[in-house]
Amino acid sequence: MHGDQRNDEYYWMGDFFREGPDSDKVVEYLNAENAYTDTMMAGTAKFQEALFAEMKGRIKEKDESVPVFSNGYWYYTRSEEGEQYFKYCRKKDSLEAPEEVLLDVDKMAEGHSYYSAVGFNVSPDNKLLAYGVDTVSRRQYTIYIKNLETGEHYADTIYPASGGSEWGNDNKTLFYTATNPKTLLSEKIKRHTLGTESKKDVVVYNEKDKSNYIGVGKTKSEKYIVIASSATMSSEYLILDADKPEGKFEVFQPRMKDVLYDVDHQGDKFLIVTNKDALNFRLMETPVTQTGVENWKEVIPNRADVLLEGIDVFKDYLVITERKNGLLQLRIRDINTNSEHYVDFGEPAYTAYAGSNPEYNSSKLRYVYTSLTTPSSVYDYDMETRKRELKKRQEVVGGYNPEEYVTERLYATTRDGVKVPVSVVYKKGTPKSAETPLLLYAYGSYGNSMDPAFSSTRLSLLNRGFIYALAHIRGGQEMGRQWYEDGKMFKKKNTFNDFIDCAEFLIKEKFTSPAHLFAEGGSAGGLLMGAISNMRPDLWRGIIADVPFVDVVTTMLDESIPLTTNEFDEWGNPKKKESYDYMKSYSPYDNVARKAYPNMLITTGLHDSQVQYFEPAKWVARLRTHKTDHNVLLLKTNMEAGHGGASGRFDYLKEIALQFAFMFALEGIGE
């Protein structure tokens, strides 16, 4: 292509996905790699079991989510001792009312090695429940409808769909996103009428642009059904009166090049968050009868130092989520008086975001707060009195004292002079020295910000003398929209350089040394791991790459693979020579060379719909034939799961136990 020749000697490994002639050979190969990993890690088998038990022991087995009030009912999930899943329940009017178990997912999952139930959606009259189920881990869902009064399931089943759905206000019309069985792309929004066959469902919207994701929802006011179509750099919304579900969707504002916008409804107007002439986004409003861009009026302007991330609309209040200096802030505006204030959090590095707030007519804001040392905490905040009430803090069974741990916010200066925030946590008494093991984690793509949050599993690392560091590198959006723009397309290498520079900074500041430094990233963060293994293999004692995206050019040329067309604005389209050359220059698979690589553990899932299993498998095979060192190279494939790993609430801990054991073995840390 473009006069360039690339040879892929392991292309046959994709045959399980393509249902090709070598399908059986692929499964045999992956099983052989798994057997090799098990053999190499056999000395840690007991330690892995102990780690699993230790991490599982911190999780409260009999637990309940904080109830959320919606349309006359309190909804919550609860989990039972020894069970992998949960029960979805509600109580009418008061928490003292008798419990209704709407779905017993523990029972539903029996006999399935993977089970995901999502998109719980109760009809406006509270009588019907629509929900999606995936038993393969390909994110292809079947939607079922249950009568909550009689307990019966209707004959209506919808497949393949994205899992979520939205009711019209007539309680008999259901809108949903239909997906392509091959590419898994969201292609059509369909309308289903109760009691009819799903194959007769009406297509109300058909997305022609393969680079757009689509979905359907409702404004919080329950007045409008909304179809969203968005690519990386532009979006478009269509609206329909929810009382007239048979009506025609109207375009809110036709898509504009390089303009993203998002809408919600409040009173006599729509509120719009947009980057139109506003790099860090601004807030606009427009009358409900005149939605075109020419009618938009500015409410909050663009600011160079503040990213406007989104809004939460209430009848009398507006909650604006902003990001300043890499930290999230919640700004509360009383729309009747226009008075404003910020919620005070009082920690140097934290994560805070609006939680589930389905009630439009409420003065209470549910928000979630966490930091590297504070377990996830759910608060109810009275926007009128400014009083907060802690509803629940994640319980760490066996005890956890935050005073025993230290969190720091550091800034690493990169080779081009940019200051990258690094969040660090360790146990008091852990020395900062060249002998101290440190795990550096990052993601750095899609504008996804990696905010500092608590992890009870991480305690198993910290309590054994590890320092944990989170690098907020470019490609995320921690420091504003420009942070993302500077880590994508033809600036993608900034992401990799930032990570390496953060590592060099931590070594210089005597937190660790290359002999004890580990790196981890997953999915697009796995691309980061692949790139740094080629660029600076000397810097790491070990690298963990979870479900890594490593064969950038081949994948982005194959439009039959899910996600490919959606992501041309993120990586580039290799059909264009300039993009092809740039992507090839960093693609981990294309840049494997004859040299020494660090110890590596690479994981994947056979049914992964986001990063197909064959990318990591081919990468490992090529590494095996090229590397000149005697370091460990392990591939672990979950033969029953996909991109998110195991579906049960404990099974995923086995995957973490393997990763921790891998690092502990290299550090000589035993049980």
Automatic annotation (TrEMBL):
Residues 453-664 form the Peptidase S9 prolyl oligopeptidase catalytic domain. It comes from the Bacteria. Keywords: Hydrolase, Protease, Serine protease. Gene3D superfamilies: alpha/beta hydrolase (3.40.50.1820), Prolyl oligopeptidase, N-terminal domain (2.130.10.120). Residues 1-393 form the Peptidase S9A N-terminal domain. InterPro entries: AB_hydrolase_fold, Pept_S9A_N, Peptidase_S9_cat, Peptidase_S9A, Serine_Peptidase_S9A. Belongs to the peptidase S9A family. This is Oligopeptidase B. It comes from Dyadobacter endophyticus. The lineage of its organism: Bacteria, Pseudomonadati, Bacteroidota, Cytophagia, Cytophagales. The gene is ptrB.
